[in-house]
């Protein structure tokens, strides 16, 4: 009886659907708040710029600068916040 | 700290702001107060002053909006983006926008300010006990009129203190119906509505007609949100319906079942399975004061800080006892310098009285008028009797065209000439010997050349040097429940309005009696002014309602056209 109840997820009418993938969440966040301005380049170059942008975001938020989408960084991205970009473009 | 490129800032020190619209989540007086306190965070540490405008264009225009609200940066529904603001400048620059899909509170759950009842506008006390049951929200239990109410102390049965909660059955806000309550059912575009609706609007705000037919009368107002109202979803503003059925199972409280984000929701009908009507349940909400203080930092020129404890850190976190962080202070003082005026806290008894005072005049000179014989009616100025240092007067009235300020046995006169100065203090007992030291209100019957003075439940009538009284105010026809007449407003044709508490009476001066049809509620006729003003008078064609250091000025069309400081605008300190 201790197994977790398997929840059924429902799409509620009128709900602004937000359950994105972590990558979508991170990319949207980095773009929206100015950490990543340049249009995405495909392949290795894109990974480098994302990592650099993640480090800038982690520095701004006082997080460990890992350059990857670790748990605390994703949690920070889900926190309520001000809409003014962190990096002026 | 960081500033915006080019150190954008306001060149003027007296920054103006205007509140364009309101969220239905809180009483407008709580919203006004939150914004005023948020500005005070910055004026406390800089030479900046913030004056509120009620019309026209202000430096900082403050507004609530949802999703796409007209600028290039749409909001995103509940949570996520809470608000944003623009750096100083013209037009959109300097403005602050708040996401009205958020649940705005003071940060600790529903902030419910009551109206009417006997709690004088106090906040609801949750939980409260009523007939042995605990309530964490407003309730209509115990009433037959379906008006939600709450206790303003922990136990209604003991204290009997209560007030009514926001409800469209009690009032609306904005719109064009002067706050009148909704009329149900009402007809709109030929259809009948028996509750608030967002039909006809693209901004999602709930409204209702304040007559039975909007198509004919075009009278409407926005519905305040009840504390039990759901947020977002597709039934915003409606209360949860308990129990409700979801996926065949019955729920009698909010649940996160069915959601991947763990947010609590409820159905607003008895069956979500059938009706698919839902919304998110009220939570702690976001402190409008904290978010506003942050956004106003942007509007003054500060960018985001990377110090987690700083106000300008981009993420929201609730702080109970807020104080500005060093980093924020350094940033704002880098732009505007530090505060040069006196310490805002009044000098204590052991503070030397020679504190520098920003706007000195002859009454401040250390040796003052020393020779009483040369100023027969004024005595050497006792610093504690400097009118400019008073935060509140017993009464202010106009006698022979001059403003008179009464306080604790003394009074000052402000000549009506433009360059006339403040004269006094004079002694009340020397001029009107029969009067007590504290005068609650006074008015001049110019036709009969009589002066009426009120103190407590007594009044005096002076004709020149002769006096009639004290007599009880019951002789004028005021009820014995009136303990104090706080204001007197000449209305011409021998009529004077006498204010006390939330009510006013109309006195027929010649007949010395109160006209039929009174009392009336002050805020029903004089909307937009505090209903606990401690002074009301007429001066140069405007009506002034005073509370503490502030006055609300009303023009002849009964519109509040100015709010300011008694000290600067009336006393000219």
Largest interface (CB < 8 Å): A-B, 25 and 41 residues
- Total strands of chain B: the figure is 36
Which of globular, elongated, flat, extended, rod-shaped describes the shape of chain B? globular
Helical stretch tally of chain B: 9
Proportion in β-strands of chain B = 25-35%
Approximate shape of chain A: globular
Distance between the termini of chain B: 36 Å
**Strand order in the largest sheet of chain B:** 2-1-3-5-4
What structural category arises from helix and sheet content of chain A?
Answer: mainly alpha
Q: What is the chains' assembly state?
A: heterodimer
| Major sheet characteristics of chain B | 5 strands, mixed
What's the N-to-C terminus distance of chain A?
54 Å
- The helix fraction of chain B, in percent, is 10-25%
Specify Rg of chain A, calculated over alpha carbons.
16 Å
Helix content of chain A: 40-55%
Let me know the average pLDDT of chain B: 86
Task: Explain the overall architecture.
The complex is a heterodimer of chains A (89) and B (573). Chain A is mostly helical. Chain A is 40% helix and 2% strand. Chain A has three helices and one strand. Chain A is globular, with a radius of gyration of 16 Å. In chain B, the strands form twelve sheets. A five-stranded mixed β-sheet of chain B has the order 2-1-3-5-4, with helices on one face. In chain B, strands 28, 29, 30, 31 and 32 form a five-stranded antiparallel β-sheet that branches. Chain B is globular and about 85 Å long. The model of chain B is unreliable at 343-380 (pLDDT under 50). Chain A binds chain B through residues 7-10, 12-16, 18-19, 33, 59-62, 76, 79-84, 86, 88, and chain B through 4-5, 73, 75-85, 99, 102, 232-234, 247, 257-261, 265, 276, 278, 286, 291, 294-295, 298, 303-304, 306-308, 314-316. Strand 1 (81-82) of chain A pairs parallel with strand 4 of chain B.
Summarize the SSE layout with pairings.
The complex is a heterodimer of chains A (89) and B (573).
Chain A: H1 22-32, H2 44-60, H3 71-78, E1 81-82
Chain B: E1 14-19, H1 28-43, E2 49-52, E3 60-65, E4 81-85, E5 96-99, E6 104-105, E7 128-130, E8 133-135, E9 149-151, H2 156-159, E10 162-164, E11 186-188, E12 191-193, E13 207-209, H3 214-217, E14 220-222, E15 244-246, E16 249-251, E17 265-267, H4 272-275, E18 278-280, E19 286-287, H5 288-300, H6 326-336, E20 395-399, E21 402-407, E22 410-414, E23 422-427, H7 428-431, E24 441-445, E25 450-455, E26 458-463, E27 466-472, E28 487-492, E29 495-500, E30 503-508, E31 513-514, E32 520-521, H8 522-525, E33 535-539, E34 542-547, E35 550-554, E36 560-565, H9 566-570
Parallel strand pairs in B: 1-2, 1-3, 3-5, 6-19
Antiparallel strand pairs in B: 4-5, 7-8, 9-10, 11-12, 13-14, 15-16, 17-18, 20-21, 21-22, 22-23, 24-25, 25-26, 26-27, 28-29, 29-30, 30-31, 30-32, 33-34, 34-35, 35-36
Helix pairs in contact in B: 1-5
